Amino acid sequence: MSTDNQWINNKIKLGIAKCLLGEKVRYDGSQKLDRYLRDVLGQYVEWVPVCPEVECGMSIPREAVRLVGDLESPRLVGRSSGKDWTDTMHEWGKERLDRLASEGICGYVFKFGSPSSGMNRVKVYQEGNRVRHDGTGMWARMVMEKFTDLPFEDDGRLHDPALRESFISRVFTLKRWRDAMSEGFTARTLVEFHTRHKMLIMAHNEKIYRAMGKIVAKAGTDVPERVFPEYFEMLFNALTYKLTVKKHINVLMHAFGYFKKDLNADEKQEMLELLDQFSKELIPLVAPVTLLNHYVRKYSKEYLAKQYYLNPYPAELMLRNHV
Questions:
Q1: Burial of 224 by CB count in 10 Å (0-12 exposed, 13-18 middle, 19+ buried)?
Q2: If we measure between CA atoms, which residue out of 264, 291, 296 comes closest to residue 278?
Q3: Domain shared by 193 and 269, yes or no
Q4: Full domain range(s) for residue 69
Q5: Last residue of a domain, one of 143, 158, 173
Q6: Residues 227-286: pLDDT tens digits?
Q7: Start and end of every DUF1722 domain (predicted)?
Q8: Closest by CA position to 313, among listed 106, 169, 128
Q9: Is residue 30 within 8 Å of residue 43, measured between CB atoms?
Q10: Domain boundary residue among 128, 158, 188?
């Protein structure tokens, strides 16, 4: 299906709740297959599946477990028996986290609502028959505390097209960052990365993008041990800002400006009409971006051709068809 050998031959590693790949590991012996994750994104991802409940010693099928007690440090116990799995989960989890670190994962997809693998909005049962709905699964909390610089999502939130696009864009950007840094912490490497990601970062937060430029400017004189972590922290922060139609329009108009002397009147009008339709949410983002990419090739705009905003991930993922 894909023609993008760069990503097929250099797959990104992502952690995932094993049941989302169709494995029958849930407490009742069932699974929660997500076909998009397995069959579409899976073409470009090497999944690292984890089922914390089974891997820490629970059987299939098994008694369902739930979180009980304090919201920030609940216990993991059997629903009927009250058997406490907390210490077992923690002991197993420490070793499993080390193995995940050695895998070099670029993100994690959790299972919505799971007392072990739920990212948020997990039920926590408290005294007086009170139930909180803003807890975090025990294993998910361990993962997020260990890997503070990774993008996380759960399968429920990934049904939202905008959240799905944002998560996958962050994952691919992180992989590009790691690949770039593997070539050495040099000023040239940082300048190249920042230049190619200009429009992508601007689409999230233009103010942070400009602050990042100041860090890049001192890369040749400051020590790498200070510059590169500072830059990455700002990059990670910038990409957490929500993309909006208005932000996309600003960046698309910025790119459009590179063609002032190239496009004829009809071509300019066609582009402006598409941007207007997109601004009114009558068409998806893929429409104006596709036309821009056409103009980039037609008029040999090398600078724009290198902008990851126009091609942030394989087109086969179809993420911009729905935002």
A1: middle
A2: 291
A3: yes
A4: 5-158
A5: 158
A6: 999 999 999 999 999 999 999 999 999 999 999 999 999 999 999 999 999 999 999 999
A7: 198-314
A8: 169
A9: no
A10: 158
